[in-house]
Amino acid sequence: MCIEHGVTRRAALFGGAGVAASLALSAPAVASAAGQLDLTYTLGPAFPPFSPGEEAVRRTVTTIAEDGYFMQEWRVLEHIGTHVDAPAHFTAGGRTSTELRLSELLLPAVVVDIAGRAAHEPDAVVTVEDLLAYERRYGRIPDGAAVLMYSGWGAKIGDAAAYRAHFPGFGPDACEWLLRRRRIRALGVDTLSIDPAPSETFDVHVALTGADRYGVENLANLAHLPRKGARIFVGLIPYEGGSGGQARVIANW
């Protein structure tokens, strides 16, 4: 996600929510083989951006029929679709997309499931108690892991207004606990933002990037990812000086 000049993202979001149309959006295949999973959405003009008007735009530049080869031109923000928030996104002087090391992009992943609560609390947050409950059931969250929130929000991906109006995220206390106690490498969510929809101050973004960690937003297929034992590869596009960027995120176990 990003911040617009002269107006808060939240104000822009709610100002345009009423005109957002429901759009068809293709979901990724659940799995290519046993123990492999694509966590990436197909990016196209229908994908819901954080604020109306930030949709991806594409046009055909050449065709095989007329030019002998096919090519498209895209206009995209760094923070749309399945994408990474690099430390530079919210922290002045933070590392950019090209400065994240390969070892930081291949890491163990755990999935904290709050879908049941989110079904009744659309702006729910992952709490410290959720993390402790996870550890009681599955064991300690590994140091250096990506902690992924599964809220079930992918079911709304075809309706931009519904996907954007409310959505869960991590609570600041849970983020700080994970940074201090488990030395995590990344947070990931199946929503538009690692902060929940009502946030005006983006405390989780500030804390996470301030600790030189990164976020991954709009993850797909988390319902099918094992709650522990998987590893993910975050195939971040290395935009020069990037505050983040689109990524192909793949899991195996």
Textual characterization of the structure:
A hairpin with a 7-residue loop joins strand 11 and strand 12 (244-252). This protein has one domain: 3-Layer(bba) Sandwich (Glucose Oxidase, domain 1), CATH 3.50.30. It is of the alpha/beta class. 22% of the residues lie in helices and 23% in strands.
Shape: globular
Strand tally: 12
Helix run count: 8
* Element string (H = helix, E = strand): HEEHEEHEHEHEHEHEHEEE
Strand order of the largest sheet: 4-10-9-7-5-11-12
- Helical content stands at 10-25%
Write down the CATH class: Alpha Beta
What separation lies between the terminal Cα atoms? 29 Å
Count of discrete structural domains: 1
State Rg. Answer: 18 Å
Q: What is the CATH fold-level name?
A: Glucose Oxidase, domain 1
- What is the overall pLDDT average? 91
The CATH architecture can be given as 3-Layer(bba) Sandwich
Q: Give the full name of the CATH homologous superfamily.
A: Putative cyclase
Q: Catalogue the unreliable spans.
A: 2-23
Q: Which structural class should the secondary elements be placed in?
A: alpha/beta
Strand content: 15-25%
Largest sheet: 7 strands, mixed, barrel
